[in-house]
Amino acid sequence: MILPGRKNRYGLLILVGLLGGLAAACGTEVNHIPGQDSRISLKLYTPPYQDAFDSVSTLRLTLMVPNGDDLVTTVDVSAEDISLSGSPASGLVLLVEGLGVDGQEILSSGQSAAFDLSADNPVEVSLLFARKGEFTRLLGDLGHARFGHSAAALADGRILVFGGAAAGDLEAPTDFVPPEVYDLATQKSCSYSDRLCPELSGYDRRFGHSVTGLPSGKAFIFGGQDEQGELIDSILIFDTQSDLFRVFSNYVAEEVHPVAFHAAELFRFDDGSGRGLRDTVIIAGGQKSSGVERIPAEYGLLYDDLSEVFTRTDLHLIEPRSKLTLTAFGANRQLVLAAGGEGAAGLVGAGELFNGQLFEAIVPSVGQGRTGLVSPRVHHAAVPVTDGVMLVGGDNLLQSIDDPEVFLSGSQFGTGFFDLSIASADANHQPRRGLIATSLPTGEVLYAGGESFDGFTRVLLNTAELLEGLNDSQAATFTDIEPLGQSLSFPSVTRLDSGALVIIGGMKPGENGPEPSAEVWYYNK
Protein backbone atom coordinates (compact mmCIF):
# COMPACT_ATOMS: atom_id res chain seq x y z
CA MET A 1 0.00 0.00 0.00
CA ILE A 2 1.49 3.31 -1.08
CA LEU A 3 -0.22 6.13 0.77
CA PRO A 4 -0.34 9.75 -0.34
CA GLY A 5 2.29 12.08 0.97
CA ARG A 6 1.03 14.92 3.10
CA LYS A 7 0.48 17.20 0.10
CA ASN A 8 -0.07 14.67 -2.65
CA ARG A 9 -3.44 14.35 -4.30
CA TYR A 10 -3.71 10.62 -4.65
CA GLY A 11 -2.22 7.30 -3.67
CA LEU A 12 -2.49 3.65 -4.61
CA LEU A 13 -3.65 0.81 -2.41
CA ILE A 14 -3.71 -2.83 -3.47
CA LEU A 15 -6.16 -5.28 -1.92
CA VAL A 16 -5.32 -8.85 -2.79
CA GLY A 17 -7.74 -11.70 -2.23
CA LEU A 18 -11.43 -12.42 -2.20
CA LEU A 19 -14.59 -11.49 -0.41
CA GLY A 20 -16.73 -13.31 2.07
CA GLY A 21 -14.56 -13.94 5.13
CA LEU A 22 -11.54 -12.11 6.50
CA ALA A 23 -8.55 -14.46 6.31
CA ALA A 24 -5.58 -12.27 7.15
CA ALA A 25 -4.43 -8.74 7.78
CA CYS A 26 -1.37 -6.99 6.44
CA GLY A 27 1.93 -8.78 6.33
CA THR A 28 0.42 -12.27 6.51
CA GLU A 29 0.59 -14.66 3.59
CA VAL A 30 -2.79 -16.00 2.45
CA ASN A 31 -3.31 -19.35 0.72
CA HIS A 32 -5.77 -18.63 -2.11
CA ILE A 33 -8.02 -21.18 -3.79
CA PRO A 34 -6.90 -21.67 -7.40
CA GLY A 35 -9.21 -19.98 -9.87
CA GLN A 36 -10.94 -18.01 -7.11
CA ASP A 37 -8.56 -15.11 -6.58
CA SER A 38 -9.46 -11.51 -7.29
CA ARG A 39 -7.63 -8.25 -7.01
CA ILE A 40 -8.82 -4.75 -6.15
CA SER A 41 -6.65 -1.83 -7.12
CA LEU A 42 -7.80 1.12 -5.02
CA LYS A 43 -6.84 4.69 -5.77
CA LEU A 44 -7.29 7.20 -2.98
CA TYR A 45 -7.68 10.79 -4.14
CA THR A 46 -7.51 13.63 -1.61
CA PRO A 47 -8.61 17.27 -1.89
CA PRO A 48 -5.66 19.58 -2.65
CA TYR A 49 -6.53 22.14 0.03
CA GLN A 50 -6.50 19.88 3.09
CA ASP A 51 -4.30 17.15 4.57
CA ALA A 52 -6.61 14.16 4.74
CA PHE A 53 -3.93 12.06 6.51
CA ASP A 54 -3.12 14.55 9.27
CA SER A 55 -3.05 12.68 12.64
CA VAL A 56 -4.38 9.50 11.00
CA SER A 57 -2.62 6.47 12.49
CA THR A 58 -4.84 3.64 11.30
CA LEU A 59 -6.98 2.89 8.28
CA ARG A 60 -10.17 0.91 8.78
CA LEU A 61 -11.48 -0.74 5.62
CA THR A 62 -15.04 -1.98 5.47
CA LEU A 63 -16.16 -3.99 2.47
CA MET A 64 -19.94 -3.74 2.43
CA VAL A 65 -21.53 -6.84 0.92
CA PRO A 66 -25.21 -6.72 -0.12
CA ASN A 67 -27.25 -9.31 1.76
CA GLY A 68 -24.13 -10.53 3.51
CA ASP A 69 -21.76 -9.78 6.36
CA ASP A 70 -19.52 -6.77 5.96
CA LEU A 71 -15.78 -7.41 6.07
CA VAL A 72 -13.74 -5.14 8.32
CA THR A 73 -10.00 -4.87 8.81
CA THR A 74 -7.68 -2.22 10.19
CA VAL A 75 -4.10 -1.54 9.17
CA ASP A 76 -1.38 0.90 10.12
CA VAL A 77 -0.89 3.67 7.56
CA SER A 78 2.64 2.40 6.95
CA ALA A 79 1.44 -1.09 5.90
CA GLU A 80 2.52 -2.27 2.46
CA ASP A 81 -0.32 -4.67 1.61
CA ILE A 82 -3.66 -5.98 2.80
CA SER A 83 -5.14 -9.41 2.11
CA LEU A 84 -8.75 -10.58 2.26
CA SER A 85 -10.24 -13.89 1.19
CA GLY A 86 -13.70 -15.22 0.43
CA SER A 87 -16.04 -15.41 -2.58
CA PRO A 88 -16.67 -13.10 -5.56
CA ALA A 89 -19.70 -10.86 -5.26
CA SER A 90 -21.49 -7.94 -6.94
CA GLY A 91 -22.76 -4.58 -5.73
CA LEU A 92 -19.86 -4.17 -3.30
CA VAL A 93 -19.00 -0.84 -1.68
CA LEU A 94 -15.67 -0.07 -0.01
CA LEU A 95 -15.51 2.36 2.91
CA VAL A 96 -12.09 3.63 4.00
CA GLU A 97 -11.86 5.47 7.33
CA GLY A 98 -8.83 7.22 8.81
CA LEU A 99 -8.70 6.74 12.59
CA GLY A 100 -6.88 8.87 15.15
CA VAL A 101 -4.31 7.66 17.64
CA ASP A 102 -7.03 6.34 19.94
CA GLY A 103 -8.29 4.07 17.17
CA GLN A 104 -11.83 5.39 17.67
CA GLU A 105 -12.15 8.93 16.31
CA ILE A 106 -12.81 9.01 12.56
CA LEU A 107 -10.80 11.89 11.13
CA SER A 108 -11.16 11.21 7.39
CA SER A 109 -13.15 8.89 5.19
CA GLY A 110 -14.13 7.98 1.66
CA GLN A 111 -16.65 5.61 0.13
CA SER A 112 -16.57 4.05 -3.32
CA ALA A 113 -19.38 3.60 -5.79
CA ALA A 114 -20.77 0.09 -6.07
CA PHE A 115 -18.61 -2.37 -8.02
CA ASP A 116 -18.52 -6.07 -8.92
CA LEU A 117 -15.71 -8.49 -8.21
CA SER A 118 -15.31 -11.75 -10.06
CA ALA A 119 -12.69 -14.48 -9.95
CA ASP A 120 -9.46 -13.73 -11.85
CA ASN A 121 -10.79 -10.34 -12.95
CA PRO A 122 -8.97 -7.37 -11.37
CA VAL A 123 -11.06 -4.26 -10.72
CA GLU A 124 -9.92 -0.69 -10.14
CA VAL A 125 -11.82 1.30 -7.51
CA SER A 126 -11.32 5.03 -6.96
CA LEU A 127 -12.64 7.13 -4.11
CA LEU A 128 -12.27 10.59 -2.63
CA PHE A 129 -10.67 10.48 0.84
CA ALA A 130 -11.32 13.69 2.81
CA ARG A 131 -11.46 15.12 6.33
CA LYS A 132 -14.76 14.72 8.12
CA GLY A 133 -16.73 17.76 9.25
CA GLU A 134 -14.94 20.16 6.89
CA PHE A 135 -15.81 22.09 3.78
CA THR A 136 -13.12 21.89 1.15
CA ARG A 137 -12.80 22.96 -2.45
CA LEU A 138 -12.02 20.18 -4.90
CA LEU A 139 -9.25 20.34 -7.46
CA GLY A 140 -11.09 20.73 -10.77
CA ASP A 141 -13.64 23.36 -11.76
CA LEU A 142 -16.52 22.87 -14.15
CA GLY A 143 -16.05 23.76 -17.78
CA HIS A 144 -18.91 26.28 -17.46
CA ALA A 145 -19.73 28.61 -14.59
CA ARG A 146 -23.46 28.28 -13.86
CA PHE A 147 -26.37 28.91 -11.53
CA GLY A 148 -29.96 27.70 -11.69
CA HIS A 149 -28.74 24.22 -12.60
CA SER A 150 -29.53 20.85 -11.04
CA ALA A 151 -27.24 17.95 -10.24
CA ALA A 152 -27.63 14.27 -9.39
CA ALA A 153 -25.32 11.52 -8.18
CA LEU A 154 -24.87 8.71 -10.67
CA ALA A 155 -24.44 5.06 -9.73
CA ASP A 156 -20.76 5.04 -10.75
CA GLY A 157 -19.79 7.84 -8.35
CA ARG A 158 -19.90 10.70 -10.85
CA ILE A 159 -22.20 13.73 -10.75
CA LEU A 160 -24.43 14.83 -13.63
CA VAL A 161 -24.59 18.64 -13.76
CA PHE A 162 -27.43 19.77 -15.97
CA GLY A 163 -28.78 23.12 -17.14
CA GLY A 164 -28.36 26.56 -15.65
CA ALA A 165 -27.18 29.92 -16.90
CA ALA A 166 -23.81 31.64 -17.08
CA ALA A 167 -25.16 35.20 -16.95
CA GLY A 168 -28.11 37.23 -15.71
CA ASP A 169 -29.90 36.57 -12.45
CA LEU A 170 -32.63 34.37 -11.00
CA GLU A 171 -35.39 36.38 -12.61
CA ALA A 172 -33.71 36.91 -16.00
CA PRO A 173 -31.11 34.21 -16.70
CA THR A 174 -29.15 34.29 -19.97
CA ASP A 175 -26.39 32.34 -21.71
CA PHE A 176 -27.68 28.85 -20.94
CA VAL A 177 -24.92 26.23 -20.67
CA PRO A 178 -24.61 22.55 -21.71
CA PRO A 179 -24.43 19.57 -19.31
CA GLU A 180 -21.27 18.17 -17.76
CA VAL A 181 -20.35 15.06 -15.81
CA TYR A 182 -18.00 15.58 -12.87
CA ASP A 183 -15.88 12.66 -11.62
CA LEU A 184 -15.83 13.06 -7.87
CA ALA A 185 -12.89 10.73 -7.22
CA THR A 186 -10.49 12.26 -9.75
CA GLN A 187 -11.99 15.73 -9.21
CA LYS A 188 -12.29 16.40 -12.92
CA SER A 189 -15.08 17.50 -15.24
CA CYS A 190 -15.61 15.83 -18.59
CA SER A 191 -14.78 19.25 -20.06
CA TYR A 192 -11.14 18.59 -19.11
CA SER A 193 -10.89 14.85 -19.69
CA ASP A 194 -10.66 12.40 -22.57
CA ARG A 195 -14.27 11.38 -21.94
CA LEU A 196 -16.61 13.56 -24.00
CA CYS A 197 -19.34 15.48 -22.25
CA PRO A 198 -22.83 14.17 -23.07
CA GLU A 199 -25.13 16.36 -25.12
CA LEU A 200 -28.48 16.27 -26.86
CA SER A 201 -28.76 19.36 -29.00
CA GLY A 202 -31.98 21.31 -28.62
CA TYR A 203 -33.01 19.62 -25.37
CA ASP A 204 -30.19 19.92 -22.87
CA ARG A 205 -30.04 23.65 -22.06
CA ARG A 206 -32.74 24.70 -19.64
CA PHE A 207 -33.57 26.57 -16.43
CA GLY A 208 -36.18 25.87 -13.74
CA HIS A 209 -36.01 22.11 -14.37
CA SER A 210 -35.35 19.12 -12.11
CA VAL A 211 -32.80 16.31 -12.27
CA THR A 212 -33.39 13.21 -10.14
CA GLY A 213 -30.76 10.51 -9.71
CA LEU A 214 -32.23 7.01 -9.82
CA PRO A 215 -31.00 3.81 -8.12
CA SER A 216 -30.94 2.14 -11.54
CA GLY A 217 -27.99 4.33 -12.44
CA LYS A 218 -29.99 6.69 -14.63
CA ALA A 219 -31.02 10.31 -14.13
CA PHE A 220 -34.48 11.69 -14.89
CA ILE A 221 -34.69 15.25 -16.28
CA PHE A 222 -38.06 16.96 -16.28
CA GLY A 223 -39.48 20.36 -17.20
CA GLY A 224 -37.87 23.78 -17.27
CA GLN A 225 -37.74 26.60 -19.79
CA ASP A 226 -35.45 27.45 -22.68
CA GLU A 227 -33.50 30.65 -23.20
CA GLN A 228 -36.49 32.28 -24.92
CA GLY A 229 -38.60 31.65 -21.83
CA GLU A 230 -40.68 28.91 -23.46
CA LEU A 231 -41.65 25.85 -21.43
CA ILE A 232 -39.89 22.65 -22.49
CA ASP A 233 -42.06 19.57 -22.98
CA SER A 234 -39.25 17.08 -23.67
CA ILE A 235 -38.35 14.64 -20.89
CA LEU A 236 -34.83 13.18 -20.86
CA ILE A 237 -33.20 10.13 -19.35
CA PHE A 238 -29.45 9.98 -18.91
CA ASP A 239 -28.00 6.47 -18.88
CA THR A 240 -24.74 6.05 -16.96
CA GLN A 241 -23.61 2.98 -18.86
CA SER A 242 -23.83 4.61 -22.28
CA ASP A 243 -23.19 8.21 -21.17
CA LEU A 244 -26.01 9.27 -23.48
CA PHE A 245 -29.25 11.20 -23.17
CA ARG A 246 -32.41 9.89 -24.75
CA VAL A 247 -35.80 11.51 -25.10
CA PHE A 248 -38.42 9.74 -23.01
CA SER A 249 -41.70 9.34 -24.92
CA ASN A 250 -43.57 6.56 -23.12
CA TYR A 251 -46.47 8.75 -21.95
CA VAL A 252 -49.62 10.48 -23.13
CA ALA A 253 -48.80 14.11 -23.88
CA GLU A 254 -52.27 15.32 -22.82
CA GLU A 255 -51.66 13.92 -19.34
CA VAL A 256 -48.12 15.20 -18.75
CA HIS A 257 -47.92 18.97 -19.06
CA PRO A 258 -44.76 21.10 -19.34
CA VAL A 259 -43.90 23.11 -16.24
CA ALA A 260 -40.97 25.05 -14.81
CA PHE A 261 -39.93 25.81 -11.23
CA HIS A 262 -41.63 22.68 -9.95
CA ALA A 263 -40.27 20.21 -7.38
CA ALA A 264 -39.22 16.57 -7.74
CA GLU A 265 -38.22 14.00 -5.12
CA LEU A 266 -37.32 10.31 -4.99
CA PHE A 267 -39.35 8.35 -2.47
CA ARG A 268 -40.42 4.76 -1.78
CA PHE A 269 -43.87 3.84 -3.06
CA ASP A 270 -46.04 0.78 -2.52
CA ASP A 271 -48.51 0.50 -5.40
CA GLY A 272 -50.37 -2.40 -3.80
CA SER A 273 -49.23 -4.91 -6.43
CA GLY A 274 -47.41 -7.04 -3.91
CA ARG A 275 -44.00 -6.05 -5.31
CA GLY A 276 -43.16 -4.07 -2.18
CA LEU A 277 -41.62 -0.61 -2.02
CA ARG A 278 -40.40 0.77 -5.35
CA ASP A 279 -38.18 3.76 -6.07
CA THR A 280 -40.48 6.41 -7.50
CA VAL A 281 -40.09 10.04 -8.54
CA ILE A 282 -42.85 12.40 -7.45
CA ILE A 283 -43.19 15.68 -9.37
CA ALA A 284 -45.55 18.47 -8.33
CA GLY A 285 -46.35 22.12 -8.83
CA GLY A 286 -44.44 24.62 -10.91
CA GLN A 287 -45.49 27.25 -13.41
CA LYS A 288 -47.68 26.29 -16.37
CA SER A 289 -48.67 28.24 -19.45
CA SER A 290 -52.01 30.02 -19.64
CA GLY A 291 -52.09 31.93 -22.88
CA VAL A 292 -49.40 34.60 -22.74
CA GLU A 293 -48.75 34.33 -19.02
CA ARG A 294 -47.59 31.81 -16.46
CA ILE A 295 -49.78 30.65 -13.59
CA PRO A 296 -49.09 28.28 -10.68
CA ALA A 297 -49.61 24.60 -11.52
CA GLU A 298 -51.38 21.99 -9.43
CA TYR A 299 -50.17 18.97 -11.43
CA GLY A 300 -48.67 15.94 -9.75
CA LEU A 301 -47.03 12.89 -11.35
CA LEU A 302 -45.45 9.62 -10.28
CA TYR A 303 -42.67 8.11 -12.40
CA ASP A 304 -41.57 4.52 -11.76
CA ASP A 305 -37.84 3.97 -12.19
CA LEU A 306 -37.94 0.21 -12.81
CA SER A 307 -40.66 0.12 -15.50
CA GLU A 308 -39.95 3.59 -16.96
CA VAL A 309 -43.60 4.68 -16.99
CA PHE A 310 -45.71 7.32 -15.29
CA THR A 311 -47.85 5.31 -12.90
CA ARG A 312 -49.95 8.34 -11.90
CA THR A 313 -50.71 11.46 -13.92
CA ASP A 314 -53.88 12.45 -12.06
CA LEU A 315 -52.41 13.88 -8.85
CA HIS A 316 -53.22 17.43 -7.81
CA LEU A 317 -51.93 19.75 -5.14
CA ILE A 318 -54.64 21.29 -3.00
CA GLU A 319 -53.07 24.71 -3.58
CA PRO A 320 -51.30 25.31 -6.93
CA ARG A 321 -47.80 26.67 -6.36
CA SER A 322 -44.31 27.00 -7.81
CA LYS A 323 -40.88 27.18 -6.16
CA LEU A 324 -42.00 24.70 -3.50
CA THR A 325 -40.02 21.88 -1.89
CA LEU A 326 -40.92 18.19 -1.84
CA THR A 327 -39.18 16.23 0.92
CA ALA A 328 -39.40 12.49 1.53
CA PHE A 329 -39.15 11.40 5.16
CA GLY A 330 -39.95 8.58 7.54
CA ALA A 331 -38.26 5.23 8.13
CA ASN A 332 -38.86 4.07 4.55
CA ARG A 333 -39.15 7.50 2.90
CA GLN A 334 -42.79 6.75 2.08
CA LEU A 335 -44.22 10.15 3.04
CA VAL A 336 -43.58 13.36 1.10
CA LEU A 337 -44.13 16.88 2.44
CA ALA A 338 -44.95 19.74 0.06
CA ALA A 339 -44.09 23.06 1.69
CA GLY A 340 -43.52 26.69 0.80
CA GLY A 341 -43.87 28.14 -2.66
CA GLU A 342 -45.64 30.92 -4.49
CA GLY A 343 -49.29 30.81 -5.58
CA ALA A 344 -51.51 33.13 -7.60
CA ALA A 345 -52.15 35.34 -4.58
CA GLY A 346 -48.61 35.32 -3.21
CA LEU A 347 -46.77 33.00 -0.87
CA VAL A 348 -48.44 29.74 0.15
CA GLY A 349 -48.31 28.91 3.84
CA ALA A 350 -50.32 25.68 4.00
CA GLY A 351 -48.41 22.43 3.83
CA GLU A 352 -49.59 19.23 2.13
CA LEU A 353 -48.70 15.62 2.76
CA PHE A 354 -48.58 13.00 0.02
CA ASN A 355 -49.59 9.70 1.64
CA GLY A 356 -49.06 7.42 -1.36
CA GLN A 357 -52.47 8.10 -2.88
CA LEU A 358 -53.12 11.83 -2.82
CA PHE A 359 -52.03 15.15 -1.39
CA GLU A 360 -53.94 15.90 1.80
CA ALA A 361 -54.11 18.94 4.05
CA ILE A 362 -52.15 18.86 7.30
CA VAL A 363 -54.42 18.04 10.25
CA PRO A 364 -52.70 18.97 13.55
CA SER A 365 -53.12 16.49 16.38
CA VAL A 366 -52.41 18.92 19.22
CA GLY A 367 -53.23 22.53 19.97
CA GLN A 368 -49.77 23.92 19.17
CA GLY A 369 -49.45 22.22 15.80
CA ARG A 370 -50.50 24.18 12.73
CA THR A 371 -51.65 23.43 9.21
CA GLY A 372 -48.84 25.42 7.62
CA LEU A 373 -45.91 27.76 8.03
CA VAL A 374 -45.96 30.84 10.21
CA SER A 375 -43.46 32.32 7.75
CA PRO A 376 -44.33 31.27 4.17
CA ARG A 377 -41.24 31.25 1.98
CA VAL A 378 -39.43 30.42 -1.26
CA HIS A 379 -35.72 29.76 -1.92
CA HIS A 380 -35.57 27.82 1.33
CA ALA A 381 -34.12 24.43 2.30
CA ALA A 382 -36.15 21.50 3.60
CA VAL A 383 -34.30 18.52 5.09
CA PRO A 384 -35.61 15.32 6.67
CA VAL A 385 -35.12 14.99 10.42
CA THR A 386 -36.40 12.51 12.99
CA ASP A 387 -40.20 12.26 12.63
CA GLY A 388 -40.45 15.01 10.03
CA VAL A 389 -38.93 17.82 7.97
CA MET A 390 -37.01 20.93 9.03
CA LEU A 391 -37.45 24.10 6.95
CA VAL A 392 -34.78 26.77 7.20
CA GLY A 393 -33.97 30.03 5.48
CA GLY A 394 -35.52 31.37 2.30
CA ASP A 395 -37.18 34.67 1.53
CA ASN A 396 -40.66 36.15 1.64
CA LEU A 397 -40.36 37.71 -1.85
CA LEU A 398 -39.01 40.85 -0.18
CA GLN A 399 -36.07 39.83 2.01
CA SER A 400 -34.27 36.88 3.52
CA ILE A 401 -35.90 35.35 6.58
CA ASP A 402 -34.65 33.38 9.57
CA ASP A 403 -37.57 31.64 11.29
CA PRO A 404 -36.74 27.90 11.36
CA GLU A 405 -39.87 25.73 11.38
CA VAL A 406 -40.44 22.01 11.50
CA PHE A 407 -43.17 19.66 10.35
CA LEU A 408 -43.58 16.62 12.59
CA SER A 409 -45.70 13.51 12.12
CA GLY A 410 -46.52 11.37 15.15
CA SER A 411 -43.75 12.83 17.32
CA GLN A 412 -43.76 13.53 21.06
CA PHE A 413 -44.99 17.01 20.15
CA GLY A 414 -47.78 15.66 17.96
CA THR A 415 -48.43 16.23 14.25
CA GLY A 416 -48.32 19.55 12.45
CA PHE A 417 -46.05 22.51 11.80
CA PHE A 418 -44.18 24.00 14.76
CA ASP A 419 -42.07 27.14 14.87
CA LEU A 420 -38.80 27.18 16.79
CA SER A 421 -37.93 30.13 18.99
CA ILE A 422 -34.25 31.05 18.73
CA ALA A 423 -32.78 30.60 22.21
CA SER A 424 -29.23 31.53 21.27
CA ALA A 425 -27.12 32.40 18.24
CA ASP A 426 -23.64 33.76 17.63
CA ALA A 427 -23.04 37.37 16.66
CA ASN A 428 -22.63 36.71 12.94
CA HIS A 429 -25.88 34.74 12.62
CA GLN A 430 -27.91 36.08 9.69
CA PRO A 431 -31.05 35.12 7.79
CA ARG A 432 -30.16 33.49 4.50
CA ARG A 433 -31.72 32.25 1.28
CA GLY A 434 -30.27 29.97 -1.41
CA LEU A 435 -28.35 28.10 1.29
CA ILE A 436 -26.66 24.72 1.72
CA ALA A 437 -28.39 22.50 4.29
CA THR A 438 -28.37 18.90 5.45
CA SER A 439 -29.32 16.87 8.50
CA LEU A 440 -26.56 15.20 10.51
CA PRO A 441 -26.54 11.83 12.34
CA THR A 442 -26.43 13.78 15.62
CA GLY A 443 -29.89 15.21 14.90
CA GLU A 444 -28.54 18.68 14.15
CA VAL A 445 -29.05 20.54 10.89
CA LEU A 446 -25.97 21.99 9.23
CA TYR A 447 -26.43 24.97 7.03
CA ALA A 448 -23.96 27.25 5.31
CA GLY A 449 -23.55 29.85 2.61
CA GLY A 450 -26.54 31.50 1.00
CA GLU A 451 -27.16 35.19 0.91
CA SER A 452 -28.65 37.84 3.11
CA PHE A 453 -31.04 39.95 1.05
CA ASP A 454 -32.77 43.05 2.42
CA GLY A 455 -34.80 43.79 -0.69
CA PHE A 456 -32.08 45.88 -2.27
CA THR A 457 -28.64 44.40 -1.62
CA ARG A 458 -27.43 40.81 -1.83
CA VAL A 459 -24.65 39.89 0.60
CA LEU A 460 -23.19 36.45 -0.11
CA LEU A 461 -22.24 34.47 2.99
CA ASN A 462 -19.53 31.95 3.80
CA THR A 463 -20.51 31.28 7.40
CA ALA A 464 -21.69 27.87 8.59
CA GLU A 465 -23.78 26.93 11.61
CA LEU A 466 -25.35 23.99 13.37
CA LEU A 467 -29.02 24.28 14.24
CA GLU A 468 -30.05 22.19 17.22
CA GLY A 469 -33.58 21.95 18.54
CA LEU A 470 -36.52 19.80 19.53
CA ASN A 471 -34.66 17.56 21.99
CA ASP A 472 -37.09 18.39 24.74
CA SER A 473 -38.41 21.81 23.78
CA GLN A 474 -39.27 24.00 20.82
CA ALA A 475 -36.23 26.24 21.29
CA ALA A 476 -33.46 26.33 18.70
CA THR A 477 -29.79 27.12 19.19
CA PHE A 478 -27.36 28.17 16.45
CA THR A 479 -23.66 27.43 16.88
CA ASP A 480 -20.90 28.65 14.57
CA ILE A 481 -18.61 26.07 13.00
CA GLU A 482 -15.73 26.29 10.53
CA PRO A 483 -16.98 28.34 7.56
CA LEU A 484 -17.41 27.40 3.95
CA GLY A 485 -14.21 28.55 2.25
CA GLN A 486 -16.06 30.65 -0.36
CA SER A 487 -19.06 32.94 -0.05
CA LEU A 488 -21.64 31.15 -2.14
CA SER A 489 -25.39 31.18 -2.81
CA PHE A 490 -27.82 29.08 -4.84
CA PRO A 491 -25.46 26.21 -5.69
CA SER A 492 -26.70 22.72 -6.43
CA VAL A 493 -26.35 20.44 -3.40
CA THR A 494 -26.11 16.69 -4.03
CA ARG A 495 -26.18 14.28 -1.12
CA LEU A 496 -24.25 11.05 -1.61
CA ASP A 497 -25.06 7.63 -0.15
CA SER A 498 -22.26 8.22 2.36
CA GLY A 499 -24.02 11.37 3.58
CA ALA A 500 -21.38 13.68 2.12
CA LEU A 501 -22.41 16.76 0.13
CA VAL A 502 -21.18 17.84 -3.29
CA ILE A 503 -21.74 21.57 -3.75
CA ILE A 504 -21.51 22.79 -7.33
CA GLY A 505 -21.70 26.17 -9.00
CA GLY A 506 -24.04 28.89 -7.78
CA MET A 507 -23.21 32.54 -7.28
CA LYS A 508 -19.94 33.80 -5.78
CA PRO A 509 -18.64 37.36 -5.21
CA GLY A 510 -17.31 39.08 -8.34
CA GLU A 511 -15.86 42.46 -9.19
CA ASN A 512 -19.27 43.82 -10.17
CA GLY A 513 -21.40 41.86 -7.69
CA PRO A 514 -22.42 38.20 -7.55
CA GLU A 515 -21.31 36.15 -10.55
CA PRO A 516 -21.76 32.50 -11.57
CA SER A 517 -19.27 30.01 -10.14
CA ALA A 518 -17.59 26.99 -11.71
CA GLU A 519 -16.21 25.75 -8.39
CA VAL A 520 -16.92 22.37 -6.78
CA TRP A 521 -16.97 22.09 -2.99
CA TYR A 522 -17.28 19.07 -0.75
CA TYR A 523 -18.48 18.49 2.80
CA ASN A 524 -17.65 15.08 4.22
CA LYS A 525 -20.24 14.32 6.85
Characterise the protein shown here:
The protein is built from no helices and 50 strands. It is mostly beta strands and 525 residues long. Strand 31 and strand 32 (346-347) form a beta hairpin. 46% of the residues are buried.
- If helices are DSSP runs of H or I spanning 4 or more residues, what is the number of helices? 0
The secondary structure category is mainly beta
For the sheet with most strands, the description reads:
6 strands, antiparallel
Residue windows where pLDDT falls under 50 for at least 5 positions: 1-35
- Percent in helix: under 10%
| Gyration radius, in Å | 23 Å
Using the alpha-carbon principal axes, give the shape.
Answer: globular
What share of the residues does DSSP label as strand, in percent? over 45%
Instruction: Tell how many strands the DSSP assignment holds.
Output: 50
Roughly what is the average pLDDT, rounded to an integer?
89
Intertermini distance: 26 Å
Features:
five-stranded mixed beta sheet; 525 residues; mainly beta; 46% strand; 50 strands; 0% helix; disordered N terminus; globular
